[in-house]
Amino acid sequence: MILRAGQFEFEFPRPVMLMGIVNVTPDSFSDGGLFLDPQAALDHALHLIEEGADIIDVGGESTRPNATAVSELEELKRVVPVLEQLSTRVKVPISIDTRKPAVARAALAAGASLINDIEANRDDPEMWRLVAEAGAGYVAMHMQGTPSTMQNHPTYGNVVRDVDAFFEHRLARLAAAGVQAEQVILDVGIGFGKTLGHNLELLGGLKRFTRFTRPLLLGVSRKSFIGKLLGVEVGARLPAGLACACWAVEAGAQIIRTHDVGPTLQAVRMIENILNHRS
Asked: What is the pLDDT of residues 209-221, one digit of tens each?
């Protein structure tokens, strides 16, 4: 299995990749405001790479439940200076976490090579045409609704089957827009239009999605479903996040998106070594 993202190419199987999160926002749920200053964001990204991040994911708009949308201009103002500086300093892929095609285009021009799109449920093909034109990598994430509506009573017939059907349909739509399968990463969208039960069912059913022979990305870092399940605040959710990461690796996930690169790297390398020696 090959993943292509701009000038980067990765062949699987290979060690699990870590996507380090850099939120250039004032209101993200766990670190809003910490890295809004471009220099602080750059320093944090470089620190995550030192810890072992294989990809840096830069976002300028919080997509937590009920987050306030920001304008295209504001999002560009937040992310472009960071991307321009980062792209001259690092040799790992840079991802832009955006749902706006114009922001994605500017980010690619500033040095990004991968688009992390929470709105892969869109009907408008503009974003996909951009991905095809640029040869960028593309994370297709499942979400029910939008960030402002996604937690208003999310309902599924069977969440694992429904997300599976979404991926099948989405891969066909991407292909029709000119996006090659080798550009695509799949993300089940933990916390995006799902109840606690839905999230647990998707984690339990992750192995099913390996049938698409595309890299699976899992993002659970510090998310609220952990707090709901275990009664812990944002800063105390790392152990549960590591448990989910190890479970995902065993189920066949290839990319873990995390705020906490160093501890996650230790956890996934340990589970990989155990799995490599399983009789």
From this structure: 999 999 999 999 9
